[in-house]
Amino acid sequence: MRGEPTILQPVVHIIDDDPSVRASTSYLLRSHGFATQIYSGGEEFFTEARLGVGCILLDLRMPDMDGFAVQAELIRRGVDLPLIIMSGHGDVRSAVKAVKLGAFEFLEKPFQETLLVTTIEQATANSLRDQNRRAQRSEATARLARLSKRETQILRGLLAGMTNKEIARRFEISPRTVEMHRANMMRDMNCDALSDVIRLAIEAELEPLERAADAAASELAA
Fold first, then answer.
1. CATH 1.10.10.10 domain residues, the chain
2. What would the pLDDT profile of 6-36 be if each residue is shown by its tens digit?
3. pTM of the shown model
4. What is the pLDDT of residues 113-166, one digit of tens each?
5. Shortest CA distance to 117 belongs to which of 25, 24, 50?
6. CATH class assigned to 145-212
7. Can you spell out the DSSP letters for 175-207?
8. Bridge partners, residue 36, by sequence
9. I need a labelling partner for 33 at 20 to 30 A (CA). Which of 99, 123, 144, 213 fits?
């Protein structure tokens, strides 16, 4: 049976060719409050899954498309949900390979209930944090897009730790003009303090302006 998750509720996607394992694992996780979706294999998952926050619980040994093939396809498609690989034939080599390819964890069947639930809790918590970071970065980027070219240049200078006078010399404008752009910047980004502007710029991964001394040193080293 498949759960009916809410939009913001993390979902555990269970991929296993064994119907009894799918059903029992889903029942166990639902009894601990997790929403689940079950799939008989990788092809069904890629056809039917609706991905949001959550994690993937993937069997390693399956016909047609084994766990490593599914993992490779997840990487190719840019799916970044935490991946937990499980196998009744676990070995060190498989575990190392899975983790090297980016798996969150490797569990051997039959797994202990406490270990499985703890691992799922950690994986879904990571997924929620990642979603929040993406949302914050997207919001910050959108707010930075409101700035003019000159305001963006000045903000990059502030990120580099430059004073108003240093920024003014760099762009051959007056310090008063820099102050005016700073005020406009705060208004355009709907920020009450310059520290809020700086925080948004960092979240949006805006590159600091290269200071003149640093640029000169780079040229000398080249």
1. 145-212
2. 446 899 999 999 999 999 999 999 999 999 9
3. 0.67
4. 999 999 999 999 999 998 888 888 899 999 999 999 999 999 999 999 999 999
5. 25
6. mainly alpha
7. HHHHHHHHHHHHHHTT-SSHHHHHHHHHHTTPP
8. 12
9. 99
